[in-house]
Amino acid sequence: MSAFLKLLFRNRLAGAGAVVLAIIVVLVLLTPVLPLQPPNVTDTADRFLRPFSEGHLLGTDHLGRDLLSRLLWGTRLSLAVGFAAAIVAAVLGAAVGIIAGYFGGRIDNTIMRGIDMLMAFPYILLALAIVAALGPGLMNALIAVAAVNIPFFARNIRGITVGLAGKEFVDAARLAGLGHGRILLFELLPNVVPVIVIAMSTTIGWMILETAGLSFLGLGSQPPQADLGSMLGEARSAMITAPHTSVVPGAMILLIVMSINLLGDGVRDALDPRLKSGALSRPMAATLVERERVPEARGEGLLDIQELQTQFHVGRRIYRAVDGVSLTLEPGESLGIIGESGSGKSVTALSVMGLVASPPGVITGGAARYKGQDLIGAKYPRLRSLRGDRIAYIFQDPLSTLHPLYRVGDQLAEAILSHHSVSKAEAMQRAVGLLEDVRIPNAENRARAYPHELSGGMRQRVGIAMALANEPDIIIADEPTTALDVTVQAQILALLDDLRRDRGLAILFITHDFGVVGQLCDRVAVMYAGRIVEEGPTAEVLDDPAHPYTARLIACVPELGQGRREMAAIPGLPPAVDNLPEGCAFAPRCDKATPACRAGDIPLAGTERRRVRCIHPETDVEAVA
Amino acid sequence: MGSYIVKRLLSAVPVLLGITLIVFLIMALIPGDPATAILGSYATPENVERLNRQLGLDEPMWKQYFIWLGNLLQGDMGRSFALNRPVLDEVLDRFGATLVLAGTSFVLCALLGVLAGVVSAARQYGLADKAITFAVIIGISVPPFFLGMMMILLFAVRLGWLPASGMYAIYGGGDLPDLLRHLIMPALALSVVATGVIGRLSRSAMLEVLRQDFIRTARAKGVHERSVIWRHALRAAMVSIIPVLGIQAGFVISGAVYIEIVFQWPGVGRMLVDAILRRDILLVQGGVVVVAACYVMFNILVDVAQSLLDPRIKT
Ligand code: SF4
Questions:
Q1: Among A122, A243, A258, whose Cβ lies nearest the Cβ of B138?
Q2: Is residue A590 in contact with ligand 1, taking CB distance under 6 Å?
Q3: Taking 80 as the threshold, does the pLDDT of residue B305 lie above it?
Q4: Residue A109 and residue A158: Cα distance in Å, rounded?
């Protein structure tokens, strides 16, 4: 509870709303004992006195009545009526909702049909019809406003009840022979009360506003009794000559409704865990870069990643997703990065082009040089012009990575149009050509399909076609076959391999599957807990792994190129990268671990050709070379 | 597509019937003798007798409903005795003015709301976002009738820029520029609350969409950020924004009642309030049925727009 209050008050606006509302409520409760002038005593000699007149702090109205006193009494009435309407609506709505949700079937159907029909009215029409039938008056306005809000409660509560009605405790109660009435009252009701309260807190501001509105129209409180709405309504005729008589009640309504809304927002935010973690932040156009030091260029390779560090900053916690990764990709080469999920392999791949979601991602160090030019520090326009043009991506699940509402042909054409000034027709033509290149039959027609109309394999071919659209030098493929079944996987891998050989593409291939690496990659780097633990030519690493982790991974694979290989077969969990142990991160899961392993940083040692980060390697990498 | 529209139209029939039933039942709440209540001061014995016969008021309830429904379907909603003209004529006359006002407001709040939401989301936690968020909080809390009064005070009385009330100038008005001058203030005042609600929703819908994988794909292929926001993200966000536009249309119509009173706009809302105060029951009944039916039809339009936007909806 106190944590909740703390959260609520951290939101300064919600705190302000709570304070204002509390002051108003206290004033209103004290109204009968405050030394106020009587609210209904008229004094025609002192009509329309301005605020701060003697004896009348807020002045007087058109009948010379004290405005301050009328304001407080009116607020009291408005709050009481709004609150009463909210209670009535909540009680009746909840009753209807619980009954519909509990009994289900025909009863539910009939009731919800009726509710839908009530909701088909703009709310005020219903309220006006009720007031028209019952006649103007505050009580009738209250009934109308409550009635109009019943469907909202009924719907919400029904939804919750339907979920609860199937639970064991309800079945148990039924088996124990409890009647429907008792189950409804003692089993279900206590569970929906919190929902009722939340629904009330979000609607009570509205109900106060609505009753004030009806009074403003002359359909609510009748003179001499006055709530805020009728005060405003009466003041309207003198609005031009004595504006303060309108401003005073109007501002009060605004203040009440606003403080309730602010408070309600605060309550919702405090209750909604998604907002706490900052998960509702949207990623920016490029990953945030905060580097203290940029490593010297080495002038190696087509793509040269040096000491890359990418972190996730969530609240005060820092997750070192990528912690000093260096890799080089030569023209036409295919390099695999393999690791469990959470090893940082995808983040490494996404960091190259600034595609790590930020917030929370921050690139805190290192460089990624394409033809010697650093991409990490590049300005956004430069980065954008290279994205998809020189370095293109293929992502994992093509259903979520293709835009669901655009035709695939248009999405392909857009990739071309983003980098070439050709006509739309020409881009479309090239798009169809690309679909043919990735062996999609009937390409002309398929270009007009939406992603959801294609099979998984077809969609991934579209994803590959999109990567090829501008004939890039490098393709970064982030687990492109993981979401596909085995036969389709093999087809896609074969396609990628052909394309790479035909076009001299360099591919950076992210995967958790040694089978895929064996089939497609010249070299492989194994990642664990944000670092590379082993690197070398694929055949050598597969035949003769040096790092105990690699050895275990390979041992888990029954036969290369067959089905799915899950890395979870290794005992123990991958470490959380916000709290890495000193020394070797694999030590807790390693059979060969010795105290020395946990003593300090272990370097990635070996030759240019093969390297390993282990002090008791399975094989001597320097000897191999 | 055509079959989808037909299907939606057919599904509206029970809702429309439900609306008539609800209105009929509410009117049955009238205490005392209905004929006397309807006729008010015109309740001479002959009039009461005639009305009882016309509306079948001495028949059982369910029969009364079908008599009333039958008349309704033939366009006969009875007569307003106070105005001495058929209810339908009066309602249709007034409804035009409401459509001009509410329609303009609806377009305004949809455009401004979505615009504010998109800008706010694209600049999350930036200055524009904070300013918009703050404006939205005030916007959704301000009573439309109070806002209308304050606008009149400022723009009509103090500054004298715009006329304070009515739809046309009494002398020499009647053309389009005159209408627009009269329309600006009420339309703006009416759109404020809905703009706030739509803006807030659009912001969260955009934030939700911007985190999706297909946005990353668009960025990865080098699409300009402007186009990422305004094409890729907004298009996807509209799927959840459009249904809210339909709901907000109902709130715009509701707010129009207050605004029509404040700005003395000759619309159906003001007609209803006047009719209630006069106890002109048949006029209220007719007005409510017509406006509610139009709102139902409007929501079908919204559904059709949604199905055009989202190919995943089976048509
Ligand atoms: S350094 Fe030690 S703990 Fe780490 S993998 Fe090698 S042997 Fe195992």
A1: A258
A2: yes
A3: yes
A4: 11
pLDDT band at A625 (very low <50, low <70, confident <90, very high): very low
CATH 3.40.50.300 intervals, chain A: 303-521
The closest of A416, A414, A404 to A451, measured between CA atoms, is A404
The two tokens of residue A352 are: 């190259």
The answer, yes or no, to whether any atom of ligand 1 lies below 6 A from the CB of A609, is no
> Which residue of chain B comes nearest to A274, CA vs CA?
B208
Within-domain flag for B254? yes
Distance CA A315, CA A134 (A): 56
Q: Residue A244 and residue A560: Cα distance in Å, rounded?
A: 84
Q: What pLDDT, in 10s, does the model give residues A217-276?
A: 989 888 888 889 998 988 888 888 888 888 889 999 999 999 998 888 777 777 665 554
Determine whether the interchain pair B141/A205 forms a contact, defined as Cβ–Cβ distance below 8 Å: yes
Please state the domain count of chain B: 2
CATH fit for domain A303-521, picks 3.90.550.10, 3.40.50.300, 3.10.20.310, 3.90.640.90: 3.40.50.300
Q: What is the pLDDT of residues A9-35, one digit of tens each?
A: 667 788 888 899 999 999 989 888 887
The token pair at B47 is 């009039």
Cβ of A604 less than 6 Å from ligand 1: no
Q: Can you give the residue range of the structural domain that contains B235?
A: 88-309
Average pLDDT over residues A97-110: 88
Q: Phi, psi (5° rounding) for residue A308?
A: -65, 130
Tens digit of each residue's pLDDT (9 = 90 or more) over B32-48: 777 777 777 777 888 88
| Helix locations, A447-485, DSSP H | 456-468
Contacts of A388 in chain B (CB under 8 A): 220-223
Please give the C-alpha separations between residue A528 and each of A320, A384, A585, in angstroms, as whole numbers: 12, 30, 8
Residue numbers in A near B207 (CB within 8 A): 280-282
